[in-house]
From TrEMBL:
The lineage of its organism: Bacteria, Bacillati, Actinomycetota, Actinomycetes, Streptosporangiales. The keyword Electron transport applies. Transmembrane segments: none annotated. Coiled coil: none annotated. One of its GO terms (molecular function) is 3 iron, 4 sulfur cluster binding. This is Ferredoxin. InterPro entries: 3Fe4S_ferredoxin, Fe-S_cluster_ET. It comes from Actinomadura physcomitrii. Ferredoxins are iron-sulfur proteins that transfer electrons in a wide variety of metabolic reactions. Keywords: 3Fe-4S, Electron transport, Iron, Iron-sulfur, Metal-binding, Transport.
């Protein structure tokens, strides 16, 4: 499973980075989130799905 954050859509609510700090972090420059690793680590798929589902901007894209 791959994960990415659309930087144009992310509003930096930090929800994803708080709930799944292994998967998401926030850029110092603009406060927008990015995926720590484009490839979701084994066993973290549900966390990635939850993050995508709960992102208020639907900025998290799974593939
Ligand atoms: S929850 Fe969504 S909008 Fe908020 S920081 Fe994460 S990706 Fe960006």
């Amino acid at each position: 499973m791959k994960v990415r954050v659309d930087p144009e859509v992310c509003q930096g609510h930090t929800l994803c980075a708080m709930n799944a700090p292994d998967l998401f972090a926030l850029r110092d420059e603009d406060g927008h989130a990015y995926a720590v690793d484009e490839e979701v680590p084994a066993g973290k798929e549900d966390l990635a799905r939850d993050a995508a589902r709960t992102c208020p901007e639907q900025a998290i894209v799974l593939s």
